[in-house]
Amino acid sequence: MERQIHILAADALAEEGLEFIREQPDTVLAHKPGLSAAELSAIIGDYDGLIVRSGVQITSEVLASSGKLRAIVRAGVGVDNIDVDAATAKGIVVMNSAEASTTSTAEHAFALMLALTRHIGHAYVNFRGGGWDRSQFSGNQLSGKTLGVIGFGRIGQAVAARAIAFEMNVLAYDPFINAPTMLDGRVKMCKGFTALLPHADILTFHVPLNDQTRNMLSAETLEHCRQGVMVVNASRGGVVNESDLLAALDSGVCGGLAIDVFETEPPPADHPMRDHPRVLVTPHLGASTREAQEAVSVAAAKSLLAFLRDEGLSGAVNIAGFRVDLDPIQCGFVDLARRMAQLIGPMITAGIGEITIELQGDDLTAAATTIERHTLVALLSGHIEADINVINVRQAAERRGIGLRTMTLDDEKNDWRQLSITVQSCGTERERRIVGRIYDDNRPRIVEINGYHMDMIPSGAMVMIQNDDRPGMIGLVGTTFGAANVNIADMAISRRGDTALMVLKIDDEPDDATLQLLRDQCGILKVAKIVLAPLLEPSSG
Ligand code: NAD
User: Fold this and answer.
1) What are the structural domains of the chain?
2) Catalytic hit among 236, 338, 339, 373
3) Is the pTM of this model over 0.70?
4) Atom of ligand 1 nearest to the CA of 209
């Protein structure tokens, strides 16, 4: 019977996503919202995949017994409730389903902006208290005002598009966008955050919370703003400094603040923003629409199952750039990379200082991260005790001080695709290097090992022998293997200086005693046996 995928949904989720999982013939769903950390920790290892919203905390303690868990998906955007580093260390992919809530959050930010500039919240509270105070709530129109959008990703762009429809001038700041304008020239991109501030009547924040964005709007940066600037934050609490903004509201530097997110959620009952006359608050409602909840729950379920079925990877936050949807050429290079790493691995006897991976071939660029990760797993498996996989291998290498460099080369002189792996030993100049290519026949080839040039298809049981380059050495090897009844199927020989490298393909694996016998022969410098997977028939394309 086909293997069943076991999914745990550990938060309340929109029924559409749960139903989608239940309909899958290869999937078993357990929906258990509200578990304690101890209860979750006790069962988490029984599941292949976990779906959460923001209600449950996935801490390193919960992940300590992660068992067969391969993936965690957050139905929504922020993964603040997941210890991503701990998951990465365990080799677990963490994904979000950000796109599904873009429209709802953008509409909410826009609603906050309208409500703020027209005092809708406070006017309504006044009315509910029996009032009809019109003069106190006179506002400003949006048309003709300048909006500064900070963070020009999915939500920032959706807000900007709506602002343009409201006849606003839109400026934006996003350090990861180089274009001078966006949205068909209707949004001017500013080079710096503080360069934008003096021009904006209203600021709206749509950035992730990280070390660069924490306290972006603070007493210091508020000094660059127009007197009476209005501020909207529907991104993450902590992006704007709450106490500095309260002071700016009281001094008039800030004319009004609308926020959906707080540094601590929920904020304490006596938080000064709760009854501030120029503050409008919603309790983190950005993605709280029926449409967004349905969409994120289905999107989370789909991306989790796609990953667990090895069909795709989307929204991963701890393995950026990694792909599973490779074309046949890229797949061929992943396979070649693994074979090359297995060949060079036994030659590395000292600690690894640095690994350099060079890829040549336009169509390999998009798969560079994927090839890099598979190479590292195959290379480091014999050298690192911990369980490593493509998710945690970079972190595992970095934690051990191993330097990593991956380069894609564009050498127009050569029309072949090539991969080279160079491993430098710790604290020495000593290098091990292997180079592989795949030509039009789609078969992997090793063309160089440590400066010895050759043309060899890496497959099956192999023995590499380094020896003095002098007469009789081939005969010596043939006689030793013949006596042990080991048939040599193929042989590549390469010479460099006064030594040579023989790479033999053999029908039967020689035992350790035969290899030792060979090592003991005069003129034999090194002997290593490597068993690679037999080569499958090449794919076309
Ligand atoms: P996104 O990744 O598409 O966009 C974020 C943008 O911020 C990116 O373009 C990035 O380049 C930019 N950025 C990163 N660092 C920056 C910096 N220092 N200065 C300026 N820009 C910077 O994300 P998104 O889907 O648009 O979400 C944006 C924010 O909205 C996130 O923080 C997310 O958690 C939040 N969000 C909140 C709610 C809610 O309920 N209020 C719902 C969904 C998303």
Assistant:
1) 5-100+291-308 (3.40.50.720), 102-281 (3.40.50.720), 323-457 (3.30.1330.90), 459-541 (3.30.70.260)
2) 236
3) yes
4) 32
